[in-house]
Design brief:
Strand order of the largest sheet: 6-7-5-4-3-2-1-8
Number of domains: 1
CATH class: Alpha Beta
CATH architecture: 3-Layer(aba) Sandwich
Distance between the termini: 60 Å
Radius of gyration: 17 Å
Mean pLDDT: 89
Low-confidence stretches: 195-202
Number of helices: 6
Structural class: alpha+beta
Helix content: 25-40%
CATH superfamily: Gcn5-related N-acetyltransferase (GNAT)
Length: 202
């Protein structure tokens, strides 16, 4: 191949695989609330507004399609959700947080992979959206997410929010599932009877 030949971009799983961390991943339970709030607080004020924790509590009380927690050495160190938008065919990543002490160790990538593995497809690609701080451009950009729009924050540009999106193909979803399974990273989902909204302040 000559130097002028185009270089193929790595596939989604090729980017994810080197950063996967073996850990326990399961759905959120009411008893996990304080641990998740501690994760939120650990990212204040550099990454999250302190006042935003109230919205986080309300979100956990309301519930979503899936909200996962990651346990490492018996401690919850990351959490994040996936909202499946009914018949619209798209999904949204919500409140993906890693405890500040564990940044840069692959848990954010593992959490992202776990949520993408839960995407439902019927042979079509699934658009995945996420609204987050512009500080996350480098993280989501490495997986192919594109910045769609920016919402200015009156406090200043350092607080602006970006809306990112990525179209995930059925092959990529299956590849992520296989990759997690190969590394013995299982996702423990709650039995259907337990899938209910979390009570506030539980």
């Amino acid at each position: 191949m000559s130097s002028s030949d185009p270089v193929a971009e790595p596939g989604l799983m090729e980017v994810i695989a080197p950063k996967l961390v073996r850990c326990r991943i399961r759905e959120f339970h009411e008893d996990d609330l304080e641990a998740c709030l501690d994760i939120h607080r650990s990212n204040e004020p550099d990454y999250l507004e302190p006042g935003g924790i109230h919205g986080f509590v309300e979100f956990l009380a309301r519930g979503t399609s899936y909200y996962l927690v990651i346990e490492h050495d018996g401690k919850i160190i990351a959490c994040g959700g996936l909202e499946l938008a009914g018949d619209s065919g798209h999904a949204t990543l919500v409140y993906g947080l890693v405890h500040r002490q564990f940044h840069g160790r692959g848990f954010g990538t593992t959490l992202l992979a776990a949520r993408l593995s839960l995407l439902e497809h019927e042979g079509d690609a699934v658009p995945v959206w996420v609204s987050t701080s512009l500080a996350a451009v480098s993280f989501f950009g490495r997986f192919g997410f594109t910045l769609h729009s920016v919402t200015p924050d009156p406090v200043g540009p350092e607080r602006d929010q970006g809306l990112f999106w990525l179209k995930v193909t059925p092959d990529e979803i299956e590849s992520i599932r296989a990759g997690l399974d190969h590394r013995d990273i299982q996702i423990e989902l709650n039995p259907p009877a337990e899938d209910s909204a979390v009570e506030p302040e539980a």
